[in-house]
Amino acid sequence: MDRTDPAASIARAAKAYSNWGRWGADDVLGTLNFLDEAKRREGAALVRRGVSFSLSQRFDMDGPQKGWRRRTNPVHTMLDTGTDAAAGHQGFPHGLGGADDVITMPLQCSTQWDGLGHIFDHGRAWNGRNAAEVVTSDGDLVTGIEHMAPYVAGRGVLLDVGRAIGTAGELPDGFAVTEEQLTATAEAQGVAVGRGDLVLVRTGQLARARREGWGEYAGGPAPGLSFTTAGWLHGTEIAAVATDTWGFEVRPNEFAHAFQPLHQVAIPHIGLLIGEMWDLDALAADCAADGVYDFWLTAAPLPITGAVGSPVNPIAVK
């Protein structure tokens, strides 16, 4: 990796780790193709105690967003309330009353998936398609995240890198997690990572943000995966990866004058489903307590037609 030449490094990684054509010219699932029926049966068999964990942050006005690229926190508005019902303003017969509400938010303002139409490389989308023909003002016409809605459920694996190599369970901002550190964490935890797995990488940054305030959590410096993990992400044949950080990869990025170079390889070339801003703390504490780091995980995106991302409430069951 030449830190002074991001363009050449991205081009080399894109060529070396491309999955274009691997599942045919019409593919819309990318690495989710690795998560088959047998893998789901394997994941379902991991439910032992029946304890469950939501891996989602709350969706409310107190979220991390500060307006970058017009991303805001959710705006929740009541359309009907108990006050309206008590005042008899709703017009329902025989004493019936009710409440109703609406939410307005960017689809990637909190715990979410990046869809395959989210990132392009030199005008090319996943599988080599012309980005201008894939995502238009009408949305993602080809790889909309609705195609993934039935499939994101299987064996989840937590790699708690924050606990394994960090201080007090957390990695500092700007810490680049390498392939060697991911592998060492898995070995220390006694868990294997392989084809079709849904891999969760905990850095501890969200725990720090909750303790100290959001600060620059949404877009600022953060621990995350090194650009050099592109080969590991490709070679392990995992179905998806998610982190407790805003951007999945280390920030500041490792190159001079670069912005999210690992995204530029992972999404349009590897076809990898990426999750961000997941809350992994309670799950991680339980895994540390019982020594079990794999579990059943279901994390279906909302089938929003043509969307390039989706909010999600992932559920891990052990």
UniProtKB/TrEMBL annotation:
Organism this protein belongs to:
Streptomyces olivaceiscleroticus
This protein's name: Cyclase family protein
Concerning Gene3D superfamilies, the annotation shows: Putative cyclase
InterPro entries linked: KFase/CYL (IPR007325), KFase_sf (IPR037175)
